[in-house]
DNA sequence: TGTTTTCATATGTCTGACAATTATCTATTG
DNA sequence: CAATAGATAATTGTCAGACATATGAAAACA
């Protein structure tokens, strides 16, 4: 079956789109083997390089995997959470860093979503997630910790909070919001007093989650949101003044 | 400057990763022109096909755009919301459809996030978004509407609700959650009574948003969540019984 | 000065070749 | 007969070189 393409536009993009659509609508199920490169050449009436460029596009989106050898080929890949997380974080991070999204907007989005998560986390938290949260709080209190390491620990703390909700879809959706904030947070230099304040709020939050107190957790998150905004304001206005 | 690669692994993937890292960490700023394909060949000591496959991988992630001609080349692309939306929706949809995420989990994630959005939407809604919501409610009431069209309108309604919060980051994050549900919703056949119930709740929700009544909006969304789950339950148990 | 032509440069595509990997078949040998 | 070693075929990965096409800039010309 020959598939027609528009010769004036990018051929490899068109081929990739055709195959991608087939994967999304289920025509090509998971683990199905695509035709070999040579067969695709014939089907789309293009050269092998063009077919290969199309396949690489799909591989970049984790839609296919390839195997060499006799029974090899390109196979529809089951999109796993790890790959999806990675893509989501890359996209979210770039979206924020390239579009000069102001800190307040990103911050609002992040804490709004986290607050939505907190009631579920309070209800379903396991000792495992609580231990992670406590461990990160401890790390945040260590002296000599760099700002970057402090931010990284902050992200880990909040990821644990989200994961405690035990809903992988929710975790996936929030991964972008939480992780993408890190580069923005890294622009802030935290004073010792700032850190103390954050650590105290983190402790309050962990306690509230441990006690399954959703109302208190929400209150703490609101405070954390406004404190974070205030710190950012201080830093940015000071920087603008110079 | 020659960059060393591991010759035993996929060369084009390594080259793509190297350039991607440079874009993410800001070494290559937006609109910067990458070296020409020939120059990249020399830099990585590979053939042009390999370089091109690497560039196509980056293009698939909307990280670069290419231009032909004398002053052409590959340029770091500013990731815009439209591209980010599209990628997010593709990834989310596939994640749900390929991993047999059960309806309840996906539904919980979606409504949890939407409920987080509702207070902001109630505060900031404009006549524009309200009009979209009302228009979709009207469409949902038309007789002879297919299940698919009903679901599509449902998605449009909820997107308008989310967009009313006027936080593009939030809209982006929720796009995945809301749109990815559509294929799952399409598996449900709605009875006329189901539709009436949903339309009534949508109307209540639109009214609550119009009156800036966040508490009422949250209540309606909770009801909508449990009703949706109940409908899905009915359908799936009936289907399992056959 | 304004227009057309030419040219240089870059990506897009094609062809053909060889390398590397791997499952399967085949022959050999104990 | 069974186990092993080797040949074989299919498939992706990489390379080299060519031509097509698009496009901005310089050169030639009116």
Automatic annotation (TrEMBL), chains A, B:
What gene codes for this chain?
A: lutR
Q: Does the keyword Transcription apply?
A: yes
Asked whether the keyword Transcription is assigned, the reply is yes
Protein name in UniProt: L-lactate utilization operon repressor
Which SMART domains does UniProt cross-reference here?
Answer: FCD, HTH_GNTR
Q: Which InterPro entries match?
A: GntR_C, TF_FadR/GntR_C, Tscrpt_reg_HTH_GntR, WH-like_DNA-bd_sf, WH_DNA-bd_sf
Molecular function (GO) terms for this protein are:
DNA binding; DNA-binding transcription factor activity
Q: Where is the HTH gntR-type domain?
A: 9-79
UniProt-listed SUPFAM superfamilies: GntR ligand-binding domain-like, Winged helix' DNA-binding domain
PROSITE patterns in the record = HTH_GNTR
What keywords appear on the UniProt entry?
A: DNA-binding, Transcription, Transcription regulation
Q: Which organism is it from?
A: Nereida ignava
């Amino acid at each position: 079956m020959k598939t027609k393409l528009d010769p004036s536009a990018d051929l490899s993009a068109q081929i990739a789109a055709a195959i991608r659509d087939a994967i999304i609508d289920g025509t090509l199920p998971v683990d199905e083997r695509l035709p070999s490169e040579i067969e695709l050449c014939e089907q789309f009436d293009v050269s092998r390089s063009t077919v290969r460029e199309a396949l690489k596009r799909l591989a970049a989106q984790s839609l296919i995997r390839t195997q060499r050898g006799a029974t090899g080929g390109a196979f529809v890949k089951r999109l796993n959470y790890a790959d999806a997380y990675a893509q989501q974080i890359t996209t979210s991070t770039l979206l924020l860093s390239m579009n000069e999204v102001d800190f307040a907007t990103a911050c609002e989005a992040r804490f709004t979503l986290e607050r939505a998560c907190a009631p579920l986390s309070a209800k379903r938290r396991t000792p495992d997630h609580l231990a992670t949260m406590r461990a990160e709080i401890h790390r945040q209190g260590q002296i000599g910790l760099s700002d970057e390491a402090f931010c990284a620990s902050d992200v880990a703390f909040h990821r644990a909070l989200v994961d405690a909700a035990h809903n992988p879809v929710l975790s996936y959706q929030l991964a972008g919001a939480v992780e993408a904030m890190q580069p923005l947070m890294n622009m802030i230099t935290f004073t010792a007093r700032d850190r103390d304040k954050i650590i105290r709020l983190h402790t309050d939050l962990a306690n509230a989650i441990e006690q399954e107190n959703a109302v208190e957790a929400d209150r703490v998150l609101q405070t954390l949101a406004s404190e974070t905004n205030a710190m950012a304001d201080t830093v940015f206005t000071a920087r603008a003044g110079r």
